[in-house]
Please model this.
Amino acid sequence: MELKFDVQDLSCGYRDAVVLEDISFSLIDGDVLCILGPNGVGKTTLFKTILGLLPRLGGKILCDDQVIDDGHECTNKSWIAYVPQAHRPAFAFTVFDIVLMGRTSHLKAFATPSDKDRAITRDVLSELGLMDLAERPYTQISGGERQLVLIARALVQQPQILVMDEPAASLDFGNQATMLQHVRNLAYKKGLVVLMTSHNPDHAILVANKTLLIEGRAKTLFGDTNQVVSDSTLSSLYHTPIRILEGMSCQDQKQRSCCLCL
Model:
């Protein structure tokens, strides 16, 4: 059954301070939405509102044509998972335990993880190529590996909607490529709806079939990436001359990429 996720005329912010308004987009399973915008424009505020961490100031968020606030099953925490930017926790939990924590939304109060929870954790670790790290302290692995672990923790929730806050931030070039490949596979092979933010327009071009540009409080543009991401829209968004270059990918296919004009 096809999943539909819709944001309609959404306004978000803090109490009476509106940060964004009239945000609208529609996604189905398999879609990857990349949200682009300058620092401080409200991308994180939008995510917090979608996740229910901030109350809506207007508009609707719908899952399968049902308003999420109305008790639809999409309000269940296992339906939507969040991947934050990589962080270093205070306690040296093993990678396995960090990922297993993602099963919390399926547990009753005071319950402990079952054999099924542990099996799901092992399966996800294997799928992401992380089993060799399972017994390693999370604090002693690389930044790229930590980011994959956070994705694994989200995936064990078995969500249909995955929200990722700058998943490639602070990663080197190789780890960015690995991360983006996993993002694309999660959507196309698992049929997830993926929402991600990025500061790099090339990430939208490489993995996202939908893009939302946020330039200001009420100045946004949503649509197919190959139509929304252009010289003019990016130059306006970032207030600097930008050109989209046409080239060839490693698979000898036409590929677009961004170039700053300094």
Helices lie at 43-50, 95-100, 115-127, 143-155, 173-190, 201-207, 225-228, 231-238. Residues 86 and 183 are 15 Å apart (CA to CA). The longest helix spans residues 173-190.
